[in-house]
Design a protein that fits this description.
Distance between the termini: 33 Å
Number of helices: 4
Radius of gyration: 13 Å
Shape: globular
Structural class: mainly alpha
Helix content: over 70%
Number of strands: 0
Largest sheet: none
Number of domains: 1
Low-confidence stretches: none
């Protein structure tokens, strides 16, 4: 498999991860949503070199951090929300 195929698969993984994370946020499974978004962050940081479209990486990062901040805000953990807001 070449880098283009891997990059496309990774983009699909991030899209599905964000979709499931958003669904979990909307159905009050906030902690599971936060955990999934953190896993997406780890995966993105480990494979960022494979994805040639840096604008796409930035959009994914913004989406992930937004969901994490929203999740922490929903469970009233404002300290963690501020921490991830600063990283964002």
């Amino acid at each position: 498999m070449n880098n283009t195929d891997e990059a496309i698969q990774l983009e699909n993984i991030f899209y599905i991860g964000l979709l499931v994370g958003t669904f979990r946020l909307n159905t009050n499974r906030v902690l599971k949503s936060i955990a999934l978004c953190k896993e997406c962050l780890v995966l993105l940081n480990g494979t960022e070199a494979l994805i040639t479209d840096k604008e796409y990486c930035n959009v994914v990062l913004i989406s992930i951090y937004t969901r994490i901040c929203k999740g922490y805000d929903l469970i009233s953990d404002h300290t963690s929300a501020i921490e991830y807001g600063k990283k964002f």
